[in-house]
Amino acid sequence: MQLHRGTAAQIALLTAIWWGASQLGALVGLPLPGSILGMLLLLTAIGGGLLPLRWIRHGASLLLGHLVLFLIPPMLALIDHPDLLSLVGLKLLGAILVGTLVVMAGTAKVIDLCLARSHHG
Description:
- This protein is an all-alpha fold.
- Helix content is 77%, strand content 0%.
- The protein has helices at 7-28, 34-47, 57-65, 67-80, 87-120.
- The radius of gyration is 18 Å and the shape is extended.
């Protein structure tokens, strides 16, 4: 994969937003992780026109394309916690699957509503 010019700067910008959101959350005492707060701030900045999407598009695509690398540490945690492969782990897996399906269905519904609204307005 060829890196687009400026991709490193875009990744640095996304990292700075995440770090700043983490610091802000800790300073204010919000019960949100920095990643969630950063996503909300990023969405607000893009939606409000403060941050053009082209400033982060390639960096975000690169990070999303390599997302599996960020998921390896949780898989290695299974080695340290073999009890997750028992009934407790099966219950946890069920909760994760149900939660994922609920989030996916909710996201699909919101997208449908937004598309319907944009076609009527």
